[in-house]
Design a protein that fits this description.
GO terms for molecular function: acyl-CoA dehydrogenase activity; flavin adenine dinucleotide binding. This protein has about 350 residues and is of the alpha+beta class. Helix content is about 50%, strand content about 10%. The longest helix is centred in the middle third of the chain and has 31 residues, at about 175-205.
């Protein structure tokens, strides 16, 4: 569909990240087998330099594997690990070949000196956590006695609030670096899972018979699926715009655009999918709800539509440019970060 990277990742995930595996992990089952298979494939090292055992790829090439991860609703923190490993290498920190890493760019130190990060995506099944608070970056083992997790988002959600009582910084990065990277990871995964939901909806509409013909032949259903298709492909385009960087550093404004637009479309895509499927779509036994839940989870994780739209608006005001010039030069004409 996309290229060799996508095809390879897509085939592997079709075998190892099945709806049954996802249900088992979300119910509290062991996630290490799934993570081990992904880690052994080497895809999580794509953004590491060749000297560090990676492929030295940037976001433009990593887009394909993250899109595939989204299509299969990967519940372990693959995308954030891929980005976190590149960050650690750039900071001169050791990179573990087998540990998964959740990421948060919205940490803060509270009045008691604790590091706090809210609603960290997939941290409940991560081995480590990388958090940025201001310019300071922290790395924490989730099994540490100083790290406490409190699950959020519902019974099957693997996000959690994190409190670290003895945070140990590993270095500094420009403010927003990790938030932008995580936002872009989630934007690409959102585009991927939306593509999967569209495929499921099209197949169901063509197979489900009512009044002697498939429901996909009714104009009202066609109209809904047309709107859904427009939003799904808008999400893909936005995520591709965000992934313009040829190295590990995300383009902050393009990443903001990608996350704001994919988050904005996610709920409507899920709504139309369930409207077309009817009652069966919300049943636990039917697979659709696995993927539409990821639309909601990833849309709110790492900053939602309003947060990232506000970042774009703030940058536009601070530039003191005419809006058209800002859009043309900064949003679509800016150079990707240099190596």
């Amino acid at each position: 569909m996309q290229n060799e990277l996508f095809d390879t990742m897509d085939r592997q995930l079709a075998e190892i990240c099945t709806p049954g595996v996802i249900r088992e992990i979300e119910a509290g089952g062991d996630s290490h087998r799934l993570w081990g298979s992904i880690a052994d494939s080497g895809f999580a090292d794509l953004m590491l330099s060749e000297q560090a055992g990676g492929a030295g790829l940037g976001w433009t090439d990593a887009w394909s594997v993250l899109f595939a991860a989204g299509r299969h609703a990967v519940v372990v923190p693959f995308g954030s690990t891929l980005f976190a490993r590149a960050v650690l290498e750039q900071m001169g920190q050791p990179v573990s070949a087998d540990k998964s890493m959740a990421v948060s760019g919205f940490g803060h130190i509270d009045s008691q000196g604790r590091l706090v990060a809210q609603s960290v995506n997939a941290v409940a099944v991560a081995d480590e956590l990388l958090v940025q608070a201001g310019e300071t970056v922290y790395q924490i083992a989730t099994s540490s006695p100083f790290c406490t997790l409190e699950r959020t988002g519902g019974p099957a959600c693997l996000d959690a609030n994190v409190v670290v009582t003895q945070p140990d910084p590993i270095g500094n990065l420009p403010v927003g670096t990790i938030a932008s990277g995580l936002g872009l990871v989630l934007a690409i995964q959102l585009a991927g899972v939306a593509d999967r939901v569209l495929s499921m909806t099209l197949n169901y509409a063509n197979e489900r018979q009512q009044f002697g013909k498939s429901i996909g032949r009714f104009q009202a259903v066609q109209q809904q699926i047309t709107e859904m298709s427009e939003r799904v492909y808008a999400m893909r385009m936005a995520s591709q715009i965000g992934a313009r960087s040829v190295n590990w550093q995300p383009c902050s404004l393009q990443a903001a655009l990608a996350k704001s637009q994919t988050s904005a479309c996610a709920a409507r895509v899920a709504s139309i999918a369930h409207a077309v499927h009817g009652a069966i779509g919300v049943t636990q036994e039917y697979d659709l709800q696995i993927y539409t839940r990821k639309l909601y989870e990833w849309a709110r994780a790492g900053g939602g539509e309003q947060y990232w739209a506000a970042q774009i608006g703030r940058s536009a005001l601070e530039s003191q440019q005419e809006l058209l010039d800002f859009t043309r030069e900064k949003m679509f004409g800016g150079s990707p970060p240099a190596s």
